[in-house]
Amino acid sequence: MALTATHPATAAEGLRTRTRTRLQGRILLGAGLVLLPWLGYLAGTLPPAEAAAWVTLDALEAAALLAAGTRLLAGDPRHRAPAAAAATLLLADACADLATAAPGPELATAVAMAVLAELPLAALCVRLAAGGRRAGER
Q: Which residue ranges run through the membrane (predicted)?
């Protein structure tokens, strides 16, 4: 017996997919919003030359995350391009943080940010940019 759109198993799977998509969109949107006050903090605490570079990188991350999150929540398939951009920027940010951190607490903070925030968020963005396909799917 083939499953149809009215079959309970199909309806439940559709609900799970919509719930997962909403959650992923909210995560991206939330991460983008969290970066906004962070931009002000960076601008106010770093030397001007450093602030310009870090604020620009984080502003681009925020824009990509906000675009991907709002498009995902709206069910717009055009969420993939900003998700790919966000993944790239997050990976670059993690690498730059780790490469420029001084040994000690600064490096520990950079590692924590990479492992707990930037890399998991980049992985989610890569998955979304790829269309959520699993290995072997076409």
A: 27-46, 107-130
pLDDT in tens, 76-118: 989 999 999 999 999 999 999 999 999 999 999 999 999 999 9
Residue 77: exposed, middle, or buried by beta-carbon count in 10 A (0-12, 13-18, 19+)?
Answer: exposed
What count of other Cβ atoms lies within 10 Å of the Cβ of residue 69?
A: 25
Structure tokens at 79: 């969420």
Which H or E run includes 3? none
Task: Report the Cα 92 to chain-centroid distance in Å.
Answer: 13
Dist CA 33 CA 63 (whole Å): 9
Domain boundaries, the chain: 26-129
Neighbours of 136 (CB within 10 A): 5
> Per the structure block, which two tokens stand in for 137?
């799917």
Cβ proximity of 108 and 128 under 8 Å: no
Q: What is the CA radius of gyration of the chain?
A: 18
